[in-house]
Structure prediction request, 493 residues.
Amino acid sequence: MGMAASRILVADDDEAVLESVTWLLQENGYEVVPANGGAACLEQLERNAPDLLLLDILMPDADGCQLLERIKGEERWRDLPVLMLSAQPPEEASVRSLGLGAADFIRKPYRPNELLARVQAQLRVGALLRSTRAALQRTEEALVRAQQDADSRRKLVDILHEVTGDLSVSELLHLLVRRAALALGVSHCSVILARPGELQAQVVAAFENPGLQQLTVRLDRYPELKAALESGQPVLVEDIDTHPLYEGVRHVWGIEGIEVPIRSVIALPFSMDRRQYGVFLVRRTRDQERFGPADLEFAQAVITAAVAVIQRAQMVESTMADNARLEHLAQTDPLTQLLNRRALAERITGEMERALRYDSSMALLLIDLDHFKQVNDTYGHLVGDDVLRDVGQLLRETIRGCDIVARYGGEEFLVLLPETDDAGAESFAERIRLAVEEHLFAREARVEPLRLTASVGVAVFPAARIESVDDLFARADAALYRAKAAGRNRVRL
Prediction:
């Protein structure tokens, strides 16, 4: 039996948009609930909360942003991803809606593929967030049950309540040591991470030093850390002056004249992952009460809860990082590390829409290295690859901050120039042509530095008979052909 389809609520007062979005999502396997206006949207939400809400910013019976604020203000809907749809200029609409808790923003008229991609991405993130919260909820409930008869139950729930927020691993560790120190009534509380077999460890969070980032310590100077890591068992030291663990290190303190203000120690080992282990270290000074078995029991409850939360946060961070890395790989040319043709085509679509909306212009440069085949034939493909990498770097250094450069394939490169007219594009293309002509290529290779030239074809939009990205590419390609035919090493519009 297959999984139930994700349920999407679409709220818009425009019947045509409502109908087209509903049809598109249903065709792609989603269950869709249409709502004509704000009142109908709230009614559907009350009836059965969806997995995702597509919400129009401007509706006659409701301000979409006010509606969003109301939805996000309710606990039961706080994790509902909301995608805002609007024909307003993106700067004002998106900033306002994202600031109120929207997950994403899509401009009208929407592009079907973009809408589907964003819907899919938000459903994934929503599902991950729900499963994370559910796991945190289960952790909290289990710990509350375990501690019901303990005097520290109230403190433990307080800690969990704050620790189960949407925080990074680093933030969680700093929060944990602060709350645990206050609950246990100690002045020294820290988290130390170590790898098996290493002689040193890193203090990554310390209550007594909130600004601390990474402090390296020698494990032979901290016998309680070493014992906890090696045995995997909690270590309770009621008095370091008499405990046998400290016999050797007490001798060193005597020789070096070190006065240790600490009297009592609890070291609780935990596993971050298979490559990294940690110790939750709590210490009391000589003027404080010594630790006993009850303190150890409470500290264990705190660290058990915290580790479950930290591991979940690590998983979320790792998933997000993997998604970002895969997206980067899908859009990047592996040789030059520039964008690839597919990624640039997506950017060009957006820039063409922007040029029309704001009555401006944009340009596309198609750059081809002249006689590049001779480089490969004479010096081999490794030198050829060095040259292509050099060109990528040269283009990166030549373009402005707002421009985008990509590898088109082979020895061809593309540069997208927003807010640029014919004269500006031609001038910029000439600058690139000259930069290539004057550059010494493959200086790291075992050949004499090479000199090359490039031909550049320029296309500017808007222009007659250019209605799509393919039309723009074709116009730049035709201009490049004219530059080649005219003798190479030149620019043509």
